[in-house]
Amino acid sequence: MLAILERIVLDAGQVVAVVEQIIEGTLVEKFIGLAEFVNVVEQGSFTQAAILMGVSKSHISKKIAFLESRLDIRLFQRSTRTLILTDAGRAYYEQCVKVLSALDEAESEISRSRNVPEGTLKISAPVTLGEFFISALLADFAANNPLLRVDFDLSTRNVSIIDEGYDLAVRIGHLEDSSLIATRLADIKFCVSTSPDYLAQHGAPTRIEELSGHNCLVCSSQGPLHGGVWKFSGAKVGETHERKVKGSWSCNNCYGLITAARRGVGLIWLPDVLVAKDLAMGNLVTVLDEYCLPSTIWAVYPSRKHVPAKVTHFIEYLREAFGSESAWRIIGSQYIAKSQRQLKSDTDPQ
């Protein structure tokens, strides 16, 4: 039994299996009466042990009797006034103290793992959102939690969180009904934007029907049936309209679309979080603002029960980072301020 608990201390992951055995009854008998026996020895009497443990004296007597019966030895020599350990009782006491100490240490290890982010955090995020924001946030979070390892996947597909062993996924937009738990990180909008040069040459659309007369850059990673379909908010709350668009440019990466739009190739339809820096710097401007489609960034994970600290702490970290609707606009403003400071430094006389 002591050997089992020593292994638990060395590898806290084994605790669950041992606890399951205890629940099933395969180990529970070996633990019955141990705490009572140790307390009787250390308190010097059944009465004091009962007071310490908040139980009756008869409860203590029954547990000691059970131990002696199971072990087939006498643990104490008793009289009306004295309670003396037998040689076998003293040897058993020394081992019991080690067992209970190891169990306490194992439970402390589990408690610590519930409150300190550690182990491997396996997370998935959309490619461009991951490149623009999640990577930096995850790097800072990992730097503040040295016991944490990171397995970060950037993908255009929705990974199967449970089947593929992910702790967490960051997703944008509508979530399919499932058993997964979703936490809202931020409200965003899908908007149409382009460069000032493009508008100077081609004019700005004022209605979504006018998009057919513009060069619309589409995201090919969404597939041939969906990449050329843009969605817009309707006049009524919750109402949406879809518009089939086409143009001379398609790309499977949002950053590629943004780069093309900056250079005046055409219009793009993307979440405002991805174009915030370019909007703040004036590289891009939005059009059809009244038709922007509200959406949401989500953190999705498998279950509400027994969520490890590495997941709960990182979700809270993301919520704080995205807590303000204008968080990405602030990032854009900070980028401009930094650029202006650098420009001033470069132009100041030495």
Which secondary structure elements does this structure contain, and how are they paired or packed?
Layout: H1 2-10, H2 15-24, H3 28-31, H4 34-43, H5 46-53, H6 57-71, E1 76-78, E2 83-85, H7 87-115, E3 119-125, H8 127-143, E4 148-154, E5 168-172, E6 181-194, H9 196-202, E7 218-219, E8 229-233, E9 240-244, E10 250-251, H10 254-262, E11 268-271, H11 272-281, E12 285-287, E13 293-301, H12 309-321, H13 327-347
Parallel strand pairs: 3-4, 3-5, 7-10
Antiparallel strand pairs: 1-2, 5-13, 6-11, 6-12, 6-13, 8-9
Helix pairs in contact: 1-7, 4-5, 4-6, 4-7, 5-6, 8-12, 11-13
Helix content: 40-55%
Overall shape: it is: rod-shaped
Distance from N terminus to C terminus (CA atoms, Å) equals: 75 Å
User: Describe the biggest sheet?
Assistant: 7 strands, mixed
* CATH class category label of the largest domain: Alpha Beta
CATH architecture of the largest domain: 3-Layer(aba) Sandwich
Mean pLDDT: 82
Structural class designation? alpha/beta
Q: What is the H/E order?
A: HHHHHHEEHEHEEEHEEEEHEHEEHH
| Uncertain segments | 1-26, 329-344
Radius of gyration: 32 Å
The share of residues in extended strands comes to 15-25%
Query: Which oligomerization state do the chains in this entry correspond to?
Result: single chain
CATH topology of the largest domain: D-Maltodextrin-Binding Protein, domain 2
Total domains: 2
Number of helices: 13
Please provide the count of β strands.
Answer: 13
